[in-house]
Specification:
With 167 residues, this protein is of the alpha+beta class. The chain is 54% helix and 14% strand. The protein is built from five helices and four strands, in the order ααββααββα. β3 and β4 form a beta hairpin. It is globular and about 50 Å long.
């Protein structure tokens, strides 16, 4: 039992692979099937497919920076993935509350890095809106990064320890 307690969470990287596969599959579909910069309603008045591109980061941060930002964001994502991988190696395998969020961030970061390498920008296609307010378009990788970051924050707020039932 002691060796099982020491088993690290690196097998959770399988979740990263799933995120990468879903992200790249969805982007291949978008590039093959959706017109550029044209809203295709999924739920009228709330959700569109909308193929667009982002050379920056979240909310198009640094999108017009002249090209250097591509390399900056790729280096930043690589450093974050290395840090999260190191954290996974030190997380007990059974601690899914810490392992899953780390794996989601890794998968999402790699999904967007693949876009930067292959296309020179990130392919975004999910657009939510209410009335005339439009949330910036995003993709599956972005969902994984945000979900993982929320999970990491929640894990940190709970002290990073699995909750035990009193009794």
């Amino acid at each position: 039992m002691a060796s099982a307690a020491r088993a690290n969470a690196l097998p959770w990287l399988a979740a990263s692979v799933v995120v990468i596969a879903l992200d790249q599959w969805s982007k291949a579909w978008v590039l093959a099937a959706l017109p550029e910069y044209t809203a295709v309603p999924v739920i009228d008045g709330f959700w569109n497919w909308y193929r667009t591109y982002n050379t920056g980061a979240a909310f198009s941060f640094l999108a017009d920076a002249g090209g250097w930002q591509k390399w900056f964001f790729m280096a930043l994502a690589s450093a974050i993935c290395a840090l999260m991988g190191w954290m996974l190696a030190r997380t007990p395998r059974r601690d899914w509350r810490q392992a899953l969020p780390l794996a989601l961030v890794i998968g999402g970061a790699i999904g967007n890095v693949i876009d930067r390498v292959v296309h020179g920008h990130v392919v975004d296609f999910i657009q939510w809106h209410a009335g005339s307010f439009y949330w910036p378009a995003f993709n599956i990788a972005d969902c994984a990064v945000v979900g993982g970051a929320i999970g990491i924050a929640l894990s940190g707020l709970s002290g990073g320890k699995p909750q035990r039932k009193a009794g």
